[in-house]
Amino acid sequence: MELSIISLILLYYLKRPMGLITVSPEWKRLFNSGMVLAGVLLILASVKIPLISHLATIISFLVAALIVYLVLKNEELHHRKGMIYAWLPIIVINFLGELTLLISPDFYDSWENYFNITEFFAFMWAIVMWINNTKQRKALEAEKLKALQREEKYKITESIKEQLEKQVIERTAELTAQKNDLEKALHDLKATQDQLVHAEKMASLGELTAGIAHEIQNPLNFVNNFSEVSNELLAELKEELEKGNTAEALEIAVDVSSNLEKISHHGKRAESIVKGMLQHSRTNTGEKVETDLNQLADEYLRLSYHGLRAKDKSFTADFKLHADPNLPKIPVIHQDIGRVLLNLINNGFYAAAEKKNQLKEAKDPLAESFIPKVTVETKALKNSVEISIEDNGPGIPAEIQSKIFQPFFTTKPTGKGTGLGLSMSYEIITKGHGGKLSVSSKPGLFTKFIITIPQV
Description:
This protein folds into 3 domains: 2-155, no CATH class; 188-282; 288-456, Heat Shock Protein 90 (2-Layer Sandwich). It is built from 12 helices and 7 strands. The protein has helices at 2-15, 25-45, 50-73, 81-103, 105-110, 112-177, 179-243, 246-282, 293-311, 334-361, 398-401, 421-433; strands at residues 289-291, 318-322, 330-332, 373-380, 384-391, 436-442, 446-454. The protein has a 5-stranded mixed β-sheet with strand order 2-4-5-7-6. The chain has a two-stranded antiparallel ribbon with strand order 1-3. The longest helix has 66 residues, at 112-177. Keywords: Coiled coil, Kinase, Membrane, Phosphoprotein, Transferase, Transmembrane, Transmembrane helix. This is histidine kinase.
């Protein structure tokens, strides 16, 4: 009877899916038939007619043995081997007990307690093995699930790979057909690029020259004005001396001396501007020299503003320099860093002025109170020096901030820019000086370019 119950249990679990593993419909039909047979045998074994019950018991042995054989020998059922190993001891013990009972009932009666104890331990073994197999099965299912996921990803990857390979082949054929046209276009593009780079350099030179001219004009105007006044005072001095008015002559002489001091001061100012520009031109050899970046930023901030004023008298803006007094001198190429500063500051003034024009065109009430402004700040960091150029212009949209350092990319209208200024500045800072050039902007509020140059 017990073997029939065990057979029913085994057949029930054999036909059920084990996680992701299922048995075929044929096996299910066979197991269902086996369950019916085991049920019939269970009923027959409970009948009090010895012949029928003994026959049912023998057939139950055969059914249990067949189940064990099928699971152990058939690969499709190997996933249930653990369950068979768990119940095999109790099957064997029941088989031996029933066999002993059939052959020698008296012997069985004398050893019945031992058979029961052994059967109890076999049952405990089955429970422990069942629990252990359940844990292993869950771990195996999890691993198989991962394997299936990996396989699915692999299939997807292979499918994408095949599609990409097909696209690559098609694209390669297209590119091969266009090769000659592209080579010609590349040749023309390089020629155009050289022209644009030259135009950008000349534009920078023109802006720098205009700034220098406007900057040097102020001290020269003072020199000319005080020279004319001094000539007039000398004529008056001569007249007073001829009249014998020595007191008046002494007062005039004091004024002349004061004028000469002012002439000397402004002459030296003009001389310092010229010397500074000559020094910058002499250092355009690619060699780095120790440079005061505070002074360089101050000069190019003023040169940029005066250069724009020289080209457009209506241009007005506010500009400030926040210089770090502890900023160390670092080795840089004067002309290159000057070109970068001039380009970024010019862009800042242009953007701020453009915002004011936009406000005027939109008839915004803030147009009159808005003042274009560019702020340059220097800062000493731990192992580097930072220069930031910030304007209060319209800002740069986030979607194009990553493109602004690309060659020929410009946000200015056609004819207003070549798209090489920021690209050249980026090359000078990153490759020429081993530094960084980054941008931070909030549309409608500001744009800030940050230059970071290592101290060594």
